[in-house]
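Researcher: We're teaching a course module on how sequence relates to structure. For the next exercise, students receive a sequence and then see the predicted structure as C-alpha coordinates, so they can try to spot secondary structure elements on their own. Here is the exercise chain.
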Amino acid sequence: MKHKSFLAGMITMLLIFALTGTAIATTGKVQKEIEYRDIKVSLDGKVLDLRDAKGNAVEPFMFGGTNYIPARALAEALGLNVAWDSANATVVLTTPKTTTPATPVTPVTPPVVKDDPTPAKSSYSRTNPAPIGTPQQVTVTNSTWSYIATVEITNVFRGQAAWAAIREANSFNEAPTDSREYVLATVKVTIDSVSTDRAVSVKESNFKAFSGTNAEYEREATVEPSPQLNGDLYEGASTEGFVSFVVNTDDPAPKVVYGAAYDGTGGAWFSLSK
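Model: And here is the predicted structure for the students to work with:
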Protein backbone atom coordinates (compact mmCIF):
# COMPACT_ATOMS: atom_id res chain seq x y z
CA MET A 1 0.00 0.00 0.00
CA LYS A 2 1.36 3.45 -0.87
CA HIS A 3 0.16 5.06 2.37
CA LYS A 4 1.49 2.23 4.53
CA SER A 5 4.93 2.34 2.86
CA PHE A 6 5.18 6.08 3.33
CA LEU A 7 4.02 6.03 6.94
CA ALA A 8 6.09 2.96 7.80
CA GLY A 9 9.13 4.78 6.45
CA MET A 10 8.20 7.82 8.49
CA ILE A 11 7.84 5.67 11.61
CA THR A 12 11.28 4.16 11.06
CA MET A 13 12.72 7.61 10.62
CA LEU A 14 11.14 8.76 13.85
CA LEU A 15 12.60 5.86 15.74
CA ILE A 16 16.18 6.31 14.60
CA PHE A 17 16.42 10.09 14.98
CA ALA A 18 18.18 11.14 18.19
CA LEU A 19 16.71 13.98 20.17
CA THR A 20 19.66 16.34 19.42
CA GLY A 21 17.85 17.53 16.32
CA THR A 22 21.11 18.11 14.42
CA ALA A 23 22.70 14.70 13.74
CA ILE A 24 22.02 10.97 13.82
CA ALA A 25 23.29 9.22 16.98
CA THR A 26 22.96 5.76 18.48
CA THR A 27 22.44 6.81 22.11
CA GLY A 28 22.16 9.96 24.11
CA LYS A 29 19.90 12.29 26.03
CA VAL A 30 18.99 15.92 25.59
CA GLN A 31 16.69 18.27 27.38
CA LYS A 32 14.61 20.39 25.10
CA GLU A 33 11.09 21.68 25.02
CA ILE A 34 8.50 19.83 22.87
CA GLU A 35 5.46 21.51 21.45
CA TYR A 36 1.90 20.15 21.43
CA ARG A 37 -0.30 21.79 18.84
CA ASP A 38 -3.24 19.34 18.76
CA ILE A 39 -1.60 17.63 15.78
CA LYS A 40 -3.82 15.15 13.95
CA VAL A 41 -2.96 12.43 11.46
CA SER A 42 -5.38 11.55 8.65
CA LEU A 43 -5.40 8.72 6.13
CA ASP A 44 -7.48 9.04 2.95
CA GLY A 45 -9.31 11.95 4.52
CA LYS A 46 -10.14 10.12 7.79
CA VAL A 47 -8.52 11.25 11.05
CA LEU A 48 -6.78 8.33 12.80
CA ASP A 49 -7.56 7.48 16.41
CA LEU A 50 -4.05 7.12 17.95
CA ARG A 51 -3.78 5.09 21.17
CA ASP A 52 -1.02 3.41 23.19
CA ALA A 53 -0.75 -0.25 24.26
CA LYS A 54 -3.12 0.38 27.18
CA GLY A 55 -5.73 2.00 24.99
CA ASN A 56 -5.03 5.56 26.13
CA ALA A 57 -5.21 8.33 23.57
CA VAL A 58 -1.82 9.71 22.53
CA GLU A 59 -1.01 12.96 20.74
CA PRO A 60 1.74 13.73 18.22
CA PHE A 61 4.10 16.57 19.09
CA MET A 62 6.69 18.85 17.49
CA PHE A 63 10.35 18.78 18.41
CA GLY A 64 12.97 20.89 16.73
CA GLY A 65 10.58 21.71 13.91
CA THR A 66 9.79 18.04 13.23
CA ASN A 67 6.54 16.22 13.89
CA TYR A 68 6.85 13.07 16.04
CA ILE A 69 4.17 10.41 16.23
CA PRO A 70 4.17 7.47 18.71
CA ALA A 71 5.18 4.38 16.75
CA ARG A 72 2.70 1.92 18.31
CA ALA A 73 -0.26 4.25 17.95
CA LEU A 74 0.42 4.94 14.29
CA ALA A 75 1.30 1.33 13.40
CA GLU A 76 -1.81 -0.13 14.99
CA ALA A 77 -3.96 2.55 13.40
CA LEU A 78 -2.57 1.41 10.05
CA GLY A 79 -3.30 -2.26 10.83
CA LEU A 80 0.36 -3.24 11.40
CA ASN A 81 1.63 -5.49 14.18
CA VAL A 82 4.07 -3.69 16.50
CA ALA A 83 6.45 -5.03 19.13
CA TRP A 84 9.37 -3.66 21.14
CA ASP A 85 12.67 -5.55 20.99
CA SER A 86 14.34 -4.24 24.18
CA ALA A 87 17.55 -6.21 23.65
CA ASN A 88 18.19 -4.49 20.34
CA ALA A 89 16.27 -1.29 21.12
CA THR A 90 14.15 -1.84 18.04
CA VAL A 91 10.50 -1.21 17.26
CA VAL A 92 9.47 -4.22 15.18
CA LEU A 93 6.70 -3.67 12.65
CA THR A 94 5.15 -6.57 10.71
CA THR A 95 2.35 -6.88 8.24
CA PRO A 96 -0.40 -9.23 9.46
CA LYS A 97 -0.59 -12.44 7.49
CA THR A 98 -3.81 -12.75 5.57
CA THR A 99 -5.47 -16.00 4.64
CA THR A 100 -7.87 -16.45 1.79
CA PRO A 101 -11.15 -17.66 3.23
CA ALA A 102 -12.28 -20.97 1.86
CA THR A 103 -14.99 -20.68 -0.71
CA PRO A 104 -18.16 -21.95 0.92
CA VAL A 105 -19.49 -25.08 -0.68
CA THR A 106 -23.07 -24.63 -1.69
CA PRO A 107 -24.96 -27.88 -1.22
CA VAL A 108 -26.43 -29.15 -4.44
CA THR A 109 -30.10 -29.82 -4.15
CA PRO A 110 -31.07 -32.73 -6.39
CA PRO A 111 -33.80 -31.86 -8.85
CA VAL A 112 -37.27 -33.00 -8.02
CA VAL A 113 -38.22 -35.70 -10.47
CA LYS A 114 -41.92 -35.91 -11.07
CA ASP A 115 -43.59 -39.10 -12.11
CA ASP A 116 -43.79 -39.23 -15.88
CA PRO A 117 -46.39 -41.65 -17.22
CA THR A 118 -44.66 -41.67 -20.60
CA PRO A 119 -42.13 -44.53 -20.74
CA ALA A 120 -38.59 -43.85 -21.88
CA LYS A 121 -37.96 -44.70 -25.49
CA SER A 122 -36.45 -48.18 -25.84
CA SER A 123 -33.22 -48.82 -27.71
CA TYR A 124 -34.74 -52.06 -29.06
CA SER A 125 -36.70 -52.19 -32.28
CA ARG A 126 -37.79 -54.43 -35.16
CA THR A 127 -34.21 -54.53 -36.44
CA ASN A 128 -32.81 -54.95 -32.93
CA PRO A 129 -35.33 -56.98 -30.90
CA ALA A 130 -34.90 -57.33 -27.15
CA PRO A 131 -33.10 -60.49 -26.02
CA ILE A 132 -34.92 -63.17 -24.03
CA GLY A 133 -35.21 -62.12 -20.39
CA THR A 134 -35.22 -58.38 -21.20
CA PRO A 135 -38.42 -56.56 -20.13
CA GLN A 136 -39.75 -53.81 -22.38
CA GLN A 137 -42.29 -51.10 -21.59
CA VAL A 138 -44.74 -50.32 -24.35
CA THR A 139 -47.65 -47.94 -24.88
CA VAL A 140 -50.67 -49.48 -26.60
CA THR A 141 -53.18 -47.01 -28.05
CA ASN A 142 -56.73 -47.90 -29.06
CA SER A 143 -59.38 -45.69 -30.62
CA THR A 144 -60.51 -44.00 -27.39
CA TRP A 145 -58.09 -45.17 -24.67
CA SER A 146 -54.56 -46.43 -24.08
CA TYR A 147 -52.45 -48.33 -21.60
CA ILE A 148 -48.79 -48.87 -20.69
CA ALA A 149 -47.53 -52.41 -20.12
CA THR A 150 -44.22 -54.04 -19.23
CA VAL A 151 -43.71 -57.20 -21.29
CA GLU A 152 -40.99 -59.82 -20.98
CA ILE A 153 -40.34 -63.12 -22.74
CA THR A 154 -38.80 -65.12 -19.92
CA ASN A 155 -37.98 -68.35 -21.80
CA VAL A 156 -38.27 -70.00 -25.21
CA PHE A 157 -38.50 -73.65 -26.32
CA ARG A 158 -38.17 -74.56 -30.01
CA GLY A 159 -38.42 -77.66 -32.16
CA GLN A 160 -39.01 -81.07 -30.54
CA ALA A 161 -39.06 -79.69 -26.99
CA ALA A 162 -41.82 -77.26 -27.90
CA TRP A 163 -43.83 -79.84 -29.85
CA ALA A 164 -43.65 -82.36 -26.99
CA ALA A 165 -45.14 -79.83 -24.56
CA ILE A 166 -47.84 -78.74 -27.03
CA ARG A 167 -48.80 -82.34 -27.91
CA GLU A 168 -49.07 -83.13 -24.18
CA ALA A 169 -51.30 -80.06 -23.64
CA ASN A 170 -53.97 -81.20 -26.12
CA SER A 171 -54.14 -84.32 -28.30
CA PHE A 172 -55.91 -82.39 -31.05
CA ASN A 173 -52.94 -80.08 -31.59
CA GLU A 174 -51.48 -80.86 -35.02
CA ALA A 175 -47.84 -81.58 -35.68
CA PRO A 176 -46.09 -78.99 -37.87
CA THR A 177 -45.11 -79.81 -41.45
CA ASP A 178 -41.58 -80.87 -42.34
CA SER A 179 -40.46 -77.31 -43.07
CA ARG A 180 -42.07 -75.79 -39.96
CA GLU A 181 -41.64 -76.14 -36.20
CA TYR A 182 -43.16 -74.80 -33.01
CA VAL A 183 -41.74 -72.06 -30.80
CA LEU A 184 -43.19 -72.05 -27.28
CA ALA A 185 -42.52 -68.93 -25.21
CA THR A 186 -43.27 -68.07 -21.57
CA VAL A 187 -44.42 -64.47 -21.35
CA LYS A 188 -45.03 -62.09 -18.43
CA VAL A 189 -47.21 -58.99 -18.85
CA THR A 190 -47.77 -56.26 -16.24
CA ILE A 191 -50.27 -53.42 -16.76
CA ASP A 192 -48.51 -50.31 -15.47
CA SER A 193 -51.23 -47.73 -16.15
CA VAL A 194 -54.51 -47.33 -18.01
CA SER A 195 -55.93 -44.06 -19.32
CA THR A 196 -59.43 -45.03 -18.13
CA ASP A 197 -60.63 -47.25 -15.31
CA ARG A 198 -61.04 -50.42 -17.29
CA ALA A 199 -59.46 -53.88 -17.63
CA VAL A 200 -56.96 -54.77 -20.33
CA SER A 201 -57.48 -58.07 -22.14
CA VAL A 202 -54.11 -59.86 -22.34
CA LYS A 203 -53.96 -62.87 -24.67
CA GLU A 204 -51.82 -64.56 -27.29
CA SER A 205 -53.39 -62.56 -30.11
CA ASN A 206 -51.62 -59.45 -28.73
CA PHE A 207 -48.48 -60.97 -30.26
CA LYS A 208 -47.49 -61.30 -33.92
CA ALA A 209 -44.53 -63.41 -35.06
CA PHE A 210 -42.19 -62.43 -37.90
CA SER A 211 -39.29 -64.11 -39.61
CA GLY A 212 -35.73 -62.83 -39.46
CA THR A 213 -36.40 -61.32 -42.89
CA ASN A 214 -39.50 -59.47 -41.56
CA ALA A 215 -42.27 -61.63 -43.07
CA GLU A 216 -45.28 -62.17 -40.82
CA TYR A 217 -46.01 -65.76 -39.79
CA GLU A 218 -49.58 -67.01 -39.97
CA ARG A 219 -50.99 -67.94 -36.58
CA GLU A 220 -51.95 -71.58 -36.01
CA ALA A 221 -54.94 -72.67 -33.93
CA THR A 222 -53.08 -74.25 -31.01
CA VAL A 223 -54.00 -75.02 -27.43
CA GLU A 224 -50.99 -74.03 -25.32
CA PRO A 225 -49.91 -75.77 -22.14
CA SER A 226 -51.13 -74.36 -18.82
CA PRO A 227 -50.92 -71.69 -17.72
CA GLN A 228 -52.05 -69.97 -20.89
CA LEU A 229 -51.56 -66.23 -21.38
CA ASN A 230 -55.19 -65.21 -21.23
CA GLY A 231 -56.91 -62.85 -18.80
CA ASP A 232 -58.27 -59.39 -18.03
CA LEU A 233 -55.96 -57.17 -15.99
CA TYR A 234 -56.62 -53.88 -14.24
CA GLU A 235 -53.85 -51.36 -13.57
CA GLY A 236 -51.06 -52.86 -11.45
CA ALA A 237 -51.93 -56.50 -12.17
CA SER A 238 -49.67 -59.10 -13.85
CA THR A 239 -50.08 -62.42 -15.60
CA GLU A 240 -47.69 -65.03 -16.99
CA GLY A 241 -48.30 -67.91 -19.37
CA PHE A 242 -47.41 -69.75 -22.58
CA VAL A 243 -47.74 -68.41 -26.12
CA SER A 244 -46.94 -70.56 -29.17
CA PHE A 245 -45.86 -69.74 -32.71
CA VAL A 246 -45.05 -71.78 -35.82
CA VAL A 247 -41.92 -70.69 -37.71
CA ASN A 248 -39.76 -71.99 -40.54
CA THR A 249 -37.17 -74.55 -39.44
CA ASP A 250 -34.46 -72.69 -41.38
CA ASP A 251 -35.27 -69.32 -39.81
CA PRO A 252 -32.38 -68.52 -37.42
CA ALA A 253 -33.83 -65.32 -35.99
CA PRO A 254 -37.63 -65.26 -35.63
CA LYS A 255 -39.05 -62.40 -33.59
CA VAL A 256 -42.33 -61.24 -32.12
CA VAL A 257 -44.00 -57.88 -31.49
CA TYR A 258 -46.48 -57.01 -28.75
CA GLY A 259 -49.04 -54.24 -29.11
CA ALA A 260 -48.27 -53.05 -32.65
CA ALA A 261 -50.85 -50.82 -34.35
CA TYR A 262 -52.91 -52.04 -37.31
CA ASP A 263 -50.38 -50.52 -39.72
CA GLY A 264 -47.45 -52.24 -38.03
CA THR A 265 -46.11 -49.20 -36.19
CA GLY A 266 -45.26 -49.13 -32.48
CA GLY A 267 -45.18 -52.10 -30.20
CA ALA A 268 -42.32 -53.82 -28.37
CA TRP A 269 -40.13 -56.25 -30.30
CA PHE A 270 -38.57 -59.40 -28.84
CA SER A 271 -36.23 -62.06 -30.15
CA LEU A 272 -37.40 -65.70 -30.16
CA SER A 273 -33.83 -67.01 -30.45
CA LYS A 274 -31.62 -68.01 -27.56
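Model: If you want an answer key for the exercise: The longest helix spans residues 2-16. Residues 1-25 have pLDDT under 50 and may be disordered.
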